[in-house]
Amino acid sequence: MTMLSPSLLAANFADLKGDIKKIEEGGADLLHLDVMDGIFVPNISFGIPVIKSIRKVTDLPFDVHLMIDRPERYIKDFVDAGADIITVQAESTIHLHRTLQEIKSYGVKAGVSLNPATPLDVLEYIIKDLDLILIMSVNPGFGGQSFIPSIKEKIRDARKIIDEKGLTTILEVDGGVKLSNVEEIVDCGVDLIVSGSDIFGAEDISARTKEFKELIV
Q1: pLDDT at 142 over 80
Q2: Distance between CA atoms of 187 and 149, rounded to whole angstroms?
Q3: Angle at Cα 21 formed by Cα 15 and Cα 27, nearest 5°?
Q4: Do residues 169 and 127 touch, judged by C-beta distance below 8 A?
Q5: Record-annotated residues binding a divalent metal cation (predicted)?
Q6: Which candidate in 29, 37, 174, 191 is catalytic?
Q7: CB 13 within 8 A of CB 200
Q8: What pLDDT score was predicted for residue 145?
Q9: What fold characterizes domain 3-216?
Q10: Active-site residue, 84 included
Q11: Which residue of 33, 85, 161, 169 lies most exposed, with the fewest beta carbons within 10 A?
Q12: How does the average pLDDT of the chain come out, rounded?
């Protein structure tokens, strides 16, 4: 069964608690938290204080995606804030293996995210250390972008690598995922779907979350 992780980046920041409750009612499996620093990506989102605050109002697992430069500086802070999964960009740190080991040392799951132009080859020597692989299907930094069609081949290739190695690594996709294309994306072998604007931008957030869940079962 494919899981759903709505992206808080598209939520109403004046009522985060209310929007989180709506996706809970709709059956969301996790909450995706995009942390941006304005350096690694050309946008600034939110950080540790916001994550700490919303940790108090939901039991959903926190799927934290660090789109920040040198994420190794802040791993413990995000763990302390309530992260259950910490995913770093392969392109954001020189010592990727060391960073993954630090994440895992705190007892949380470790993931690596790849930008659209980053090949799967970079995972070759670390894939057995990964709990999650996040394939970006847009160039990171802003919500509401369109899914890049050529990424479907990359998703299928990642699925094949995971299966051939007999791994249980979660395959996640984020970027441009909507009701209109989620089924074809899931069919590529995805375990975890991220969607932001198509969920939080809906008139009825809870109902839209349920629609996604029904399509990806």
Answers
A1: no
A2: 14
A3: 140
A4: yes
A5: 32, 34, 65, 174
A6: 174
A7: no
A8: 77
A9: TIM Barrel (3.20.20)
A10: no
A11: 161
A12: 96
